[in-house]
Amino acid sequence: MIVTRSWLNEWIDLNGISTDQLVKTFNSIGLEVDSISTYKVPQKIVFGRVLECEKHPDADKLNVCKVDVGDAVLQIVCGASNVRASLDVVVATVGAVMPDGMVIRQAKLRGVESEGMICSAKEIGLPDSKDGIMELDGSIGKFKLGQEVCENTIFSDDIIEIELTANRGDCLSIRGIARDLSAAFDRVLRERNIKESEEKRVGIGRILALSHENNLNVNIRYKAVDLKELKLSFVVKLRLLQIEEKKETDIESAIAYATHSSGVVLRAYNHSFFCAKDEILAKASLCQDENGFASIMARENKKASTIGITQEDASKATSDEGIVLIEASYIPPDIISKKMQSKKMAVGHSYYRASRGSEPDLDQGLNYCIDFIESNSASSVFGGTIELYDMHEDKIISVSKKEIDEIVGANIDKAKITKILKNLGFETTKLSAEDFVVSVPKFRHDISNRQDIAEEIVRLIGIDNIPSKPFTFTEDNRLGDDYFRYKKRQTYRHKAAYSGFFESVSFVFDDKKILQEYGFETLDESKELLNPIVNTLDTLRSTLLSGLLRAASNNSKNGYSSVKLFEVGSVFSSQREESLKMAMLFSGDRESQSLSNFGKPLKVDFGFFAQRVSNIIGEFELREFKTRHSLSHPFQCAAVVIDGETVGELFRLHPNVEESYDLGVTYMCELDFEKLPSGLKTAKRTSKYQASYRDLSIVMPKEMSYEKVKDVIEKSEIEKLVRFYPVDKYCDESLGENMSLSIRFVLQSNDKTLEEEDITEAMDTILNALSSELGIGIR
């Protein structure tokens, strides 16, 4: 964004503020200055007026001019095509040193004396207009003939280029920059309240009709001007060159100047583009085009422009005479940016401003433009305005002084907070002594929460004015779910290794025939592998058990009498849904040959294997269970239950399967890894007093499961009962259809050593519950 000091001064009084102070203020309030260039016209270059202009007697392209420079009338030979009598000009007198180093001397040109030089903009260090010598007018302010040009602020100006962040579209204008400066310097913004006289004006409704669709999120206004004798002033032309916005016609230049100054996106349309042949009434419509953008359409569905993006060349007003429609528009930047991401299209100059947030005060911009045209032409303006206004719901943010102080890190005076926000265009209401309700102006689309409000206060106070505090280093915990899943997997692998199991790693591919043979789930035909590695690995595995069996068989055939393996890996359902499993296998001898077992070690059994699994995964229960596959022994299989939830299965391998794989007695277990417990252990209080043991032999039906007995005992909720477990089972002819089950009870108190009465009371409670619930009692 390019601004000049003199242009800013039209919107805010900069008297007493140096350019250096201005630049420092820009940087402190977040408007970073990218570059600054200062130009000053050299001395002995003065204002003059051409009194006479005659052709050179010996050169067709030269003119001999009499130029009044206040205290003298100089004869100057000039070759500019636009020199003429009564023209106010800039004159380099004899002795002046030009910016390029050239020294002006008295000379003869084709035999005619010349006492100076009438200057173009480029010759005195200004941007090159390529229009010949400068034609001065009243726009530069009052001046005297003979006065040095460097004394005039227009010719001794500073050009400042500001690098704006994408969210500060409100500062893409001279007015927007001045608005921030007014808050920083606490000086009034010079608003232009232009009152339009409607007397004896033809209404715009006679030459323009606008139809529209609803819910397009567009604000738009039109005025009409009958252009006549439009001529831009010297200062306007100079400023357009400074901001690199030189246009082909004066009306295009006027629109560019008003847009850059006010921040409102303005366009000029040729009135006849919207008219049918031999008609005066122009008909325009605002509708959604084929790409979903809000567009202005003429008759026969001809597109005039896309709001905020581009204007079609055919609709542009390129003549400085005739009826012109002036459009001011606003569309929320988030809407136009999102649509542009999905529907790419060529953009015009206005897109940069609209996509970052143009000025929504359309009346201010449109009136500025019309007043500018009237002031620089003999044009007549049509009365009234045609407009479409989309209702805007104010953004309200509640914030307390305490919250602002905590975010800023300093105690900010309440009156200062209110003043800063007011100067920035925010409306504030106090709910209480400490709470504010802030209404965000529409031009600040980047403000959405209380942190943004606090940031506005900080940048206006100045970060250097916030007292420093000791730095405190804090860091959020970066440990996410992925880490904890990895840590859990590592923990269980290590536990299995500590318990004597060796890790087996196999492919995620398996033999489909083997899986089907033993009754395991396989992939649906539509989700099978299209190009298997080999025929024996032609599907994704649905279990880890088959891989462990193959590995155990290979170890057994190599002479190992005891094989202990585990694997943690992925398995897949019929729909290729992935899950993580853990499987263990124990086959053959439970211990090595030694003197203590006389060289004949025992084989692994159900209880021994279950205990080894418990050493890895912790406490669990076994419940009656029948597997869906045919690998298991029909009478030695159980469900593994942790905290009431089934997490897997534990079984002995079927003897036929053991024989087919050349294995001895083999036990296997497969668990759902995600359901296995993980996390920190919770410490529990333990009693310092001695525990007491009591055995009860219960006579119960053979078909009755131990689980029913266990549930009844647990429901008794005996405080002193620590744990209980079956220790013996006895059957004989005298018991008939019943059996005797011996259960050992461990009782302990946290307060004392239990006495016989306490133990007897607990046992009686258990017996009464068994009798009433299940109809069973002691032997």
Radius of gyration: 47 Å
Helix content: 25-40%
Number of strands: 36
Shape: elongated
Q: pLDDT under 50 segments (min length 5)?
A: none
CATH overall fold name of the largest domain: BirA Bifunctional Protein, domain 2
What structural category arises from helix and sheet content? alpha+beta
List the topology elements:
Blueprint: E1 2-4, H1 5-9, H2 19-28, E2 32-40, E3 45-55, E4 63-68, E5 73-78, E6 88-93, E7 107-109, E8 112-114, E9 116-118, E10 156-163, H3 174-185, E11 208-212, E12 219-227, H4 234-242, H5 250-262, E13 265-270, E14 282-288, E15 294-297, E16 303-306, E17 310-311, E18 322-330, H6 333-342, H7 349-356, H8 362-375, E19 380-381, E20 386-388, E21 395-400, H9 401-408, H10 414-423, E22 427-430, E23 435-440, H11 450-461, H12 481-498, E24 502-503, E25 509-510, H13 512-517, E26 539-540, H14 545-557, E27 562-572, E28 578-588, H15 606-617, E29 621-624, E30 632-642, E31 645-653, H16 655-660, E32 666-672, E33 692-701, H17 706-715, E34 721-730, E35 738-747, H18 756-774, E36 777-778
Parallel strand pairs: 11-14, 24-27
Antiparallel strand pairs: 1-10, 2-10, 3-4, 3-6, 4-5, 6-9, 7-8, 12-18, 12-19, 12-20, 13-18, 14-15, 15-16, 16-17, 21-23, 22-23, 25-26, 27-28, 28-32, 29-30, 30-31, 31-32, 33-35, 33-36, 34-35
Report on this structure.
With 779 residues, the chain is an alpha+beta fold. The longest helix has 19 residues, at 756-774. The protein is elongated, with a radius of gyration of 47 Å. It starts with a strand and ends with a strand. The strands form nine sheets. A seven-stranded mixed beta sheet has the order 24-27-28-32-31-30-29, sandwiched between helices. A five-stranded antiparallel beta sheet has the order 5-4-3-6-9, with no helix packed on it. A five-stranded mixed beta sheet has the order 11-14-15-16-17. It has six domains: 2-39 and 159-185, Phenylalanyl-tRNA Synthetase, Chain B, domain 1 (2-Layer Sandwich), CATH 3.30.56; 42-147, Nucleic acid-binding proteins (OB fold (Dihydrolipoamide Acetyltransferase, E2P)), CATH 2.40.50.140; 204-388, 3-Layer(bba) Sandwich (Phenylalanyl-tRNA Synthetase, Chain B, domain 3); 395-465, Phenylalanyl-tRNA Synthetase, Chain B, domain 1, CATH 3.30.56.10; 481-675, BirA Bifunctional Protein, domain 2 (2-Layer Sandwich), CATH 3.30.930.10; 692-778, Alpha-Beta Plaits (2-Layer Sandwich), CATH 3.30.70.
